[in-house]
Design a protein that fits this description.
single chain; mainly alpha; about 270 residues
Length: about 270
């Protein structure tokens, strides 16, 4: 597919600017830490991750989808599913796989060490949705490429999924105010900020809930859905109890966190 990079960049910048502007005009919570400090570390990670991916992976997910179609690999190609059905199922199945991956990164202590960098942010806003450790991003890309080979979705489905995942991650981490009635309707179709913010609560049972990024149905189906935080959205504490020092928001500390940080009691299999 042509212009994949340009499509992703245009959608990324458009959604980022829209959510960042929304946060300034109608914030949901008062931020507890310097936006300048947090954004420097979070955005540095955001721009570092694609460089790591392009250095380590000669073929990315969309390219692999083209290869599977040409070679007839993957379940969808073997079954000969109609293109439209493959497109819809491809997006949905890939989203489910990311949901399962997210649960696994909360369940296995070694993987949690990587993922806790995302949760150690002391506030949640549009940049939190982009803040993932480079090693986690590498593992996630490996899982995604493997899933594409096994499933055989159309390349367009993979591109739509990746664009949606990136956009909804920024949206549902946004520090934005939505009317309650609109949120109730939206969370039937997509993970909303009110729904996902619960996942960033310092309370462990809330951290281990609402794992979805894009489609909200998996949490409801598998019993990991939690409607609201116990202390309410304005009074809830964001982050992890073992990381409360604002000095730990710097780039070098974020990169070192999986190796030197205290994993706490968040991993699911400790309960």
């Amino acid at each position: 597919m042509k212009n994949v990079f340009a499509i992703r960049v245009v959608f990324f910048l458009s959604v980022f600017i829209m959510i960042a502007a929304w946060e300034l005009m109608a914030p949901r919570r008062v931020l507890t830490n310097s936006r300048k400090t947090r954004w420097f570390g979070n955005l540095a990670i955001t721009f570092l991750n694609p460089l790591v991916i392009y250095l380590l992976f000669p073929v990315l997910a969309v390219d692999m989808a083209i290869k599977t179609q040409e070679s007839g690999w993957g379940l969808f190609n073997i079954l000969g599913l109609p293109y439209g059905l493959s497109l819809i199922l491809g997006v949905a199945v890939l989203d489910f796989i990311i949901y399962v991956q997210h649960v696994i990164f909360h369940a296995i202590p070694l993987l949690w060490r990587l993922h806790m960098m995302h949760h150690a942010d002391l506030d949640v806003d549009v940049t939190t949705g982009l803040r993932f450790h480079p090693i986690e991003i590498v593992l996630s890309m490996g899982i995604k490429i493997s899933a594409v080979v096994l499933i055989g979705p159309p390349a367009a489905a993979v591109l739509i999924f990746e664009v949606l995942l990136n956009a909804t991650s920024m949206f549902n981490h946004g520090n934005i105010r939505l009317p309650l009635k609109i949120d109730r309707v939206l969370r039937c179709l997509v993970v909303t900020p009110e729904m996902h913010r619960v996942h960033h609560s310092v309370i462990i049972r809330e951290t281990n809930s609402n794992f979805g990024f894009n489609l909200p149905w998996w949490d409801r189906l598998f019993g990991t859905y939690r409607d609201q935080p116990a202390k309410g959205h304005k009074d809830m504490t964001i982050g992890l109890s073992q990381f409360r020092d604002a000095r730990e928001l710097t780039l070098h500390w974020l990169l070192a966190l999986p190796f030197i940080g205290d994993p706490g009691r968040q991993p699911i299999n400790r309960h």
